[in-house]
Each structure stands twice: as structure tokens, then as C-alpha cells.
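ok so for the tutorial part 2 we go from a plain amino acid sequence to predicted C-alpha cells. step 1 is just haveing the sequence, like this:
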Amino acid sequence: MTGFHTIATVWYEYRRWAAAARAGKASVDTARTRALQLGVAGTILGGIASGLAIFAPDLSAGVGSVAGFISAAAGMTVAAAGHLGKDWLSARDRLAWVHQRHLAEALKRESWLAWMLVPPYDGEDAKVRLEARVQRLIGNRAYQCREVAEEGELPKHASIEDYIAERVEDQIAWYSKRSQEGQDKLDRWTQVPTYLGLGAALLGAGGLLVSIAAVAVPVLTAIAAAILAWLSAQRLDVTVRRYQEARFELQLLLAGFEGLSGAQSRDAEQAFVLRCEQAMARENEAWRADWLDDERAEEELARLSSSTEPGGNEE
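step 2 — the prediction. this is what the C-alpha cells look like for a chain of 315 residues:
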């Protein structure tokens, strides 16, 4: 059978890669937000400089004018935003986070399959199979992952009841929480471009506000476009849908298993565990594909990493 210490080692390796993925995601999210903030600030400064040229021409005359200074600040701010987008959000940074999260979930899956003695981890050679599988997953890793300060406790895994509580219900709760957070963020921020666009339309239609509209409309339109691009880059709509689908699939599997009468056979328990893990693996694969929809990014990932497709049935 699979050695306890072997599975525990795999579990802690999962936690290391999960920590790296969380840190990578935080870094990418921060860079995106900072780039948005700088871009919006640069747009507003550019609008102010244009407004001074119309409403306060005295402040716009000369090389060292106030409008010239503001215009230069706007240019530097926009350039800084572009620097963040190009260097902080490089393809390698995005690939590192995607790779780390994908690998972490694969290691987590193998740990649970081994704990629950699901094939191929139900025989005398289970330990050898697990070690081979893990080596295949992380053997060609091209990214570093941070150390976990505290290993913490292992999840309970002595029975099918433990699996349901610690794995299935916990994952259902996680999907529910993350999908709700994503939907709330999407609902909240998609309203902002709508209001900005409405304001730009009203200003543009006001005949008495031609001068103001000439300055404000481009600014409002540019800010609305930047926010929409920021939202699009986070893929919230796709991610929310993926999480909701995965949650519903797990709920159906759990309801079907708990609805069976009497004590279940070992084969039935193994089949239930395998179906649940397959459902979570499909979400992991779909999530990965969503983030690697760019062909060049996909080619880079293939070069940097060996296959990390979930599964453990290879010989």
C-alpha cells in the first residue's frame, strides 16, 4: 500500500506550489491594478492639460507653463502604466502562476486518490506508482516555488465521510465563495464604464457644453475603455462560469452518492471518489486552457513544463 509519509510529502509539496500560485496571482493582480490606476491618472492629467489650453490659455503659454508640466506628467504616468503592463505582466509571469496553480491542483488530486486507495493506488505497488506520478508532474518544473512557513495539519482521510467533508464539501464551498466574489466584482465594475459612457454621451449632446465636452468626452471614454480592458484581462465571466459548473457537478455527484441506500461497497466508494476528482480535474484543465488561450503562451508552457495533466493510471 501507499506509505503514509509518501502521501504526506506529496501533500506538503502541493501546499508549496499552492502558496507560490497565490503569491503569483497576487503579484499579477497588483500589477494590473497599478497599471489601471496609472493609466487613468495619466488620462485625467492629459485632460486637465487640454482643458487649460482651452479655458486658461495664459497657463499654457511657454515651455515651462503649468499646462506643459501637467502634460509631461501625464506622458510619464501613461509610460509607467505601459511599463507595468509590459514588464510586470510578461508572458512568463502569467505562465508561472498558471503553471503553479495547475501543478498544485494535480498534486492535491493525487494525494487524495492515494489516501482513498483509488486505483492505481490500491495495490502493493501504490507507493512506487505515486512516486513515479509525482516525478512526472514536477520533474521538469521551470519555476521556483516558495517554502511554506508552517506545514499545518493534514486533512482527515480515514473514511469516505472524511473525504466528503474535507474534500468534496470543502471544494463546493470554495467554488461557491470564489464564484460569488467574482460575480460581485464583475457586477460592481461593469457599471462604472456604463456610467462614464453615459456621461460622455450627455456631454457630447449638450450644445452649450461644447468646450467642456471636447475635453471630458475623450477622457471619460478612455477611462471606460481602460476599466473594461482591466476586467477582460481578469477573465471573471469565464472563471465564474467554470466555478459554478464545477460546483454544480460536485453537488450532483454528492447528492447521488448520499442518496444511495445502505452502506456502500468499497468499489462504489472508489468510483465516487474518482468521479469527484475527475470533475475537479476538468475544472483545473478548463481553467488552464482559459488562461492559455494565446497560442504563443501555450507553446511557451509546453517548452517550460512537462505534462501536468491530472491522472494516475499510466504504467
